Amino acid sequence: MDKTTKGTLYVLIAMVLFSTGGFFIKLINANAYTIVFGRAFIAGLIFLPLIQWKKLRVSKNYLVLAIGYCYLCIMFVLTTKITTAANAIILQCTAPLWLYLYYVIRGKKITGRELIPRLFILVGIIVIFSASAGGNLWGDLLALTNGIAYAMVQHLMDKEYPVSDNSIIGLNNIILCLVILVLFPTQIDFSGLSMAGWLGLIFLGVFQIGVSYLVFFKGVRMISALKASMVSLLEPILNPVFVFFFVGEIPAVNSLIGFGIILFGIALTMIPMKDIAQIEEC
C-alpha cells in the first residue's frame, strides 16, 4: 500500500469515528460543557501515560493548535446541542473554503478552476442561513466559525512537533479540561447521567476524539492538510445519517439544499489541480 492510499485510509477511518459524535451528543442526557469535559477527561486519561514530558517544547504552532482544538471541541458539542446535527457538521466542514482563503492570503494565485467549488460552498452557507433553514441562527453562526477552527487545526496538524502524536492528543485534551474548569466550572454536572450516558461518554473519549485524532494525525502527515480536508467529505455525510437513524432528527428542506450544495462544492475540490504542489507548500 503506497503512502497516499494509506494516508487516505487513515483519514477515512478518522471520519467514520468523528461521525459518531452527532448522535452520541444528542443522546447523552447532559449539557454541552459536561460532555466536552467528560470526553476530554477520558481521552486525556487514556493518553496520559504516553505523553513525552521531557521532549515537550512550547511553540507558536502548538499554542495555536491547542487553542483551535479547544474551540473546535467546545463549539462542535455546543452547536450540535442547539442547532440541527446536519447544520453543525456541514458548517464545520466548510474548512476547505477557509483553507483556500488562507492560501490565497499567503500568495496563492486565484484560478477559476479552484474558485468555482468554493463559490458553491459559499452559496450553500447562504442557503443554510436563510430564514427557513430549520436550525438555530446563533448555533449556525457558531458552527460556521468552527469551520475556520477546523481548517486551522487541520493546517497545524501537518506541522512537525518535538513530541509524538500521542503526546499532542493527550496534552490537547488535558488543556481542554483545564479550560472548561476555568471558564465553565458551574456547568459541569454528572449527577443526572444515566449508565447509557456514561457508556456514550467513554466511547466519545476513547474513540471519537482519542483514536480518531491519532489516525487523523497520521493521515494528514501522509497526504497534507488540504487533501485531508477534502477526504473529510465523508463526515458531513455520515454524521446526520447516524443522527437520523438513532435520534430521528430530520433537517429542514433549506438545510438539505444548502447541505447538498456545500457537499457538491467540497466534492469539486477533490478534482486534481495542476498546481496542487504549490498549495501544499504554503
Automatic annotation (TrEMBL):
**Has the keyword Amino-acid biosynthesis been applied to this entry?**
no
Q: Which Pfam families match?
A: EamA
TM spans (from-to): 7-25, 31-50, 62-79, 85-103, 115-135, 169-188, 194-216, 253-271
Which domain of life, per UniProt? Answer: Bacteria
Q: Record's InterPro entries?
A: EamA_dom, EmrE-like
Where does the EamA domain start and stop, copy by copy? 6-129, 138-270
Could you list this entry's UniProt keywords, alphabetically sorted. Membrane, Transmembrane, Transmembrane helix
Concerning its family, UniProt says:
Belongs to the EamA transporter family.
This chain belongs to which protein, by name? Answer: EamA family transporter
